[in-house]
Every structure is written in structure tokens, then in C-alpha cells.
Amino acid sequence: QVQLVESGGGLVQPGGSLRLSCAASGSSDIISPMAWYRQAPGKQRELVAIIHDGSSTIYADSVRGRFTISRDGAKNTMYLQMNSLKPEDTAVYYCRGWLFRQDYWGQGTQVTVSS
Question: Which tens digit of pLDDT belongs to each residue from 4-63?
Fold first, then answer.
């Protein structure tokens, strides 16, 4: 079964940058699309960005221009480059991928933006 593991989270000051990674294992098939979500305390989980094979992308309005989603399709690895981070970006960030009829979630990685 497909497993997704996020990494790269941590504590960063406002205006700083982080690069998140999502590594998939358990399948030689291309996982597509892949997406990043986030969930802040007391808020619903929201879509941050999604990338399709080929490779069109969409971004939430709140992150467009600051975040960049990318992937290495052959390795089923996805990245989220986060620049100009704001305190409101603080959340647990999750990766999600689709393979055939199933979707899969990672365990999440904490991103905290604070002075």
C-alpha cells in the first residue's frame, strides 16, 4: 500500500522560508495528482496547492505568489517551497496523493511561523 511521509517542517521567523518534502513509497506507478493541505488549530483542513502530471498547478489564494509546488514524478516525490512565511501559515501540513481509485495521506509535518 502507498505510504506518504512529509518532512521539512519546523519553526521559522516571519518572512523566512521552508521547503517541505513528501516522499511516497509502496508503488511503482505514478501517483497523480499530488497535493498539499494544511490545518491550523480550530480550523478546517484546506487545500494549499495541487500539481498534476504534466504538470499544471493550482494554488490557494492565500499562498499564491509565495509558495511553489513541484514534483519529481518518476520518484513520486513532491515539494512545497514556502517563501515570505507569515504567522497565519502556521499549521500542520499534509501531503495527499491519488493512485487509481484510492487517495492517500501523509502523517503531517508541523510548520510554525513565529518571532
Answer: 999 999 999 999 999 999 999 998 888 999 999 999 999 999 999 999 987 799 999 999
10 CB neighbour count, 10 Å cutoff: 12
Q: Measure CA 84 to chain center.
A: 16
Burial of 47 (0-12, 13-18, 19+ CB in 10 A): middle
d(CA 115, CA 97): 33
Q: In sequence order, which residues have a C-beta less than 8 Å from that of residue 44 and are 6 or more positions away?
A: none
What are the cell numbers at 75? 520518484
Q: pLDDT digit string (tens) for 68-114?
A: 999 986 789 999 999 999 999 999 999 999 999 899 999 999 999 99
